[in-house]
Amino acid sequence: MNTTLNDYREVVGPQVVDELLLLADRVRHRRIQHVNSTAVGGGVAEILTRMVPLFRELGLETTWDVIKGNQAFFEVTKSFHNALHGSKETITEKMFEVYRETTNTNLCDFSRTGDFVVVHDPQPAALISHKKETGGHWIWRCHIDVSSPQPAVWNFLKPYIEQYDGSAFSMPEFSQRLSIPQFMVPPSIDPLSDKNRELPNADVTKVLEKYGLDQERPILTQISRFDRLKDPLGVIYAYRLIKRRYDCQLILAGGGASDDPEGEQVLQEVREAAQNDPDIHILLLPPFSDLEINALVRGSTIVIQKSIKEGFGLTVTEALWKGRPVIGGAVGGIKLQILNGVTGFLVHSPEGAANRAIELLGDEQLRDSIGANGRQHVKDNFLTTRNVRDYLLMILAMEHRDKDISLLTSPRR
Ligand code: UDP
Q1: Ligand 1 site: residues with CB under 6 angstroms?
Q2: How far is CA 182 from the centre of its chain?
Q3: Other beta carbons within 10 Å of 376
Q4: What is the pLDDT of residues 209-219, one digit of tens each?
């Protein structure tokens, strides 16, 4: 569905869109180039898919490049990802070599088309080597929590990152001390995308029926890549505790991301843990299942995101926006989104998740009020329009900084 900037007026209010137009006017004729490591799957691709057309509509020429890598490279970057999140990974010199080699291959194909090059996450971070030859403003946009990384990986990446002109983190707690400026830019969801737009009840019912769900009984859902950090096994454990009190069903829906080679193995573990329970629905969704995910979330009584580590957790934002009560692991960006007891519940264990789910299942009014608060919180803070505004402000700030520096360094007349 093609949406235009004007369509957002109804959702976020006309003043928000007018402000974007004003800001965009200040940076017109700048070109933005986004670079990341996957076109589909995962939060970054999700955000870019929706934000790139909006930048274009605001009059900024915007492109999006995806680096290429083989299985070995993505295994290395997945280990880096886990290590940056603080997990214990075995990191070898060979892994750094694989990373450098793939970067060099990508550098051969890379051309700078943006005045502002926004490089997302660690996978393409070393492309910064290109800046020496071609100039431009380079921003490293980090979507993950690098506050307590395994030093080997952080020490390897840091010299690349400090060559950037600026960095952007999703929240202050995720960042590291760096010699370059840092901006705080929480991610966002698009209220008009197929993943998030309003759906008729009949569409929701159709999807629930397709997957054999019984609408008469409570449905608990976690939408996530099959990744240990999303704790799918903890969710199954919690479901079994809840099941003692309520005859509920569980949906674990997820697909793969092309930059996550671990998914297959985790899916296998999930299948084993589910032990053919007919009320556990493990749905392997193909890419672009946005309407189905939208319907599954809308058809759920409670949405769970029991991550052990999390970047921001867009699935939480998506569920809050739909007014669903959400139970989330008290980690990463989930803590920005779930104000405990107000916009959802934060938990630290499967038992905690089960207790909160039981409380919610027994109290429809609580589900409704928590759901309404959650939607308002997203409206105020985590919609695409706010994210686009932050980027425009970041561009302005970097240009002003350049001017200030040139004023400071130019000789007085
Ligand atoms: N997602 C999807 N299909 C799936 C699983 C997830 O489209 O099978 C989407 C999900 O709706 C969300 C994003 O991928 O928009 C996941 O972002 P999140 O920040 O929750 O986690 P990440 O995968 O980036 O760790």
Answers
A1: 42-43, 46, 195, 223-225, 254-255, 285, 289, 293, 311-315, 318
A2: 19
A3: 14
A4: 999 999 999 99
